[in-house]
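If your schedule permits, I should be very grateful for your opinion on a structural question. The matter concerns a single protein, recorded as an amino acid sequence and a row of backbone structure tokens. Could you please explain, in whatever detail you think fit, how the structure tokens follow from the sequence? I set the record out below, with my sincere thanks for your time.

——
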Amino acid sequence: MTDSIVDVAGLRVGHFTDTRRPTGCTVVLVPDGAVCGVDVRGAAPGTRETELLSPLNAVEQVHAVLLAGGSAFGLDAAGGVMRWLEERGVGVQVGPARVPIVPAAILFDLWVGDASIRPDAASGHAACAAASRDTPAQGNVGAGAGASVGKLFGIERAMKGGIGSASVTVGGVTVGALVAVNALGDVIDPATGQPIAGARTMDGRGLQGTMASLLRGELPVPFQPGSATTIGVVATDAQLTKAQANKIAQMSHDGLARSINPVHTMGDGDALFALGTGASGRTASTTLLGALAAEVTARAVVNAVREARCLAGPGLPELPSLHELQVS
């Protein structure tokens, strides 16, 4: 077991990281198809193909899920994922064509470096080419490359976010999560209830404690909608219906609520997808699967900031990570 989403049989993960800015995208490939649901909680989402995932709508399976930086521009990367799948004959047969189904969500990382550099179709194609069953890298890679956390008091007091993963197996069924953490709020360790990454004090040497500051009456700086966002994929090898997948995606947000505070704000477009590969051949209680999904989502958020490293350089905001704050 790798304690990551690739412990779920039937999927592969690939990152593309553009170091020029940095930014990137991450793909979860399920070429044999997987049932998929979604739940969007943030007020400023950027998504693609989410309506298709409703149990009321016709297509039953997807072939990949894409997470990308670059704000709405980053949705272009899904075209490259479609092209990669089409080249391999993967998709829903519609008349003379096979159409790959690729839901996607993006986060806002344009604070970091040259905003004209963002994931495009070539980036999505490259992420697919890199996809494997190996333990996916965490921290400053893929969709987490330009991520930051703790921005309610300004990007200059924020810290480095990233992408993280986790998994758990119970009763012969595995549930995993992969989350790109780019929140306005602080990241909280659920084991202690304390912030471990987020808004820093004025001198930059410690954690401000965003909720404690708000309760004292310290007001955040004005932020435009869509200037942050945490996005992710939870997956299980259990057999799911679309209705179950949507419920599990909904319950997964409890993991964000445990590990990010505040979350689902007007500046975040938080969205989580849920995949069921069915590779175990087993069914399981939706309540159990949703509870496990929330647990691994929270663990993945914490892993994202624990694996992140400092971002600094010409034209970049200085974003220390949890690692640098601990050793300074």
The mean pLDDT is 96. The first strand starts at residue 12 and ends at 18.
